Amino acid sequence: MWTRRPEWTPGHRCGGTSFPVRRERPTRTLKWPTANAPSSADTTEKARQRPGADRIFPRGERNSVSGPGVGEPTEPPRSFVSLHFSPLLSTRLARKVGSMKIGIIGAGNIGGNLTRRLTALGHEVEVANSRGPQTLTALAEETGATPVTASEAAKGAQVVVVTVPLKAVPDLPAGFLDGAAEGAAVIDTGNYYPQQRDGRIAAIEEGLPESRWTEQQIGHPVIKAFNGTYAQDILDRGRPQGTPGRQALPVSGDDPTAKQAVRDLIDELGFDTVDNGGLDDSWRQQPGTPVYGNRGDVDAIVKALSEASPERTAEWRA
Length: 318
Hints:
The protein is an alpha/beta fold and 318 residues long. 25% of the residues lie in helices and 9% in strands. The longest helix is centred in the C-terminal third of the chain and has 14 residues, at 256-269.
């Protein structure tokens, strides 16, 4: 088990460039996953929808967090049932970026739903979790993703998604990114929940942005994205480019090439993006800020980022 700047300037939505069309996968009708359904002790609306969160607590423990929580409804929304992740529908959401190899480390709420959407878009996905590939059989059968160990997930990957609890980051396998493709973009979806899950991390308490801490632990630059996004929104709320009110996600990172690759991928998923500057500015996306859990469009997200304070509220400090 794992136990483990420049002045901020908001950017603009992606758009414009055409990319080659890739091979489409056949249409699949997905089985709704039951593994993440809330227990009888964890059925409040707050405990079912924490943005950006994979599992906060071990199985069987109650989530006592105020605000949106983890887990997904046991019955799929109608919009999800009607989509069935048809590749034809998927191609309408945004321009294509071309089929890529993507490694996902963490198969909870965010990791699992990214696996579902990215495979439906035709990407080659390898997914890992802390309990081993034998526990990912159902997700693999549902999506066509390949279950692997955490040390194998990044091999040859052009994009790697690290979506594990912060307290588990130091215990990711040593050198797990060594085999990634040259220039691979590494996405960090993590949030620091000191009272609710992670315990005290001194450097973050002293002001180091969460994703900067993660970057130091894994020894590779990261792009912060999806950390304030509700997992269900990844399935339900993608819209074609140019749709009025299209939901936008903030993205932070120091490498402009990697950041653009992530923004293009998010655009393909059906969301606009806002450039939140470098990783030192990624505190504007942390829990408790106006953008956390915000489903607004580009203008709303730009406004929310501009209103953020670097001071953590009591709920989000150890």
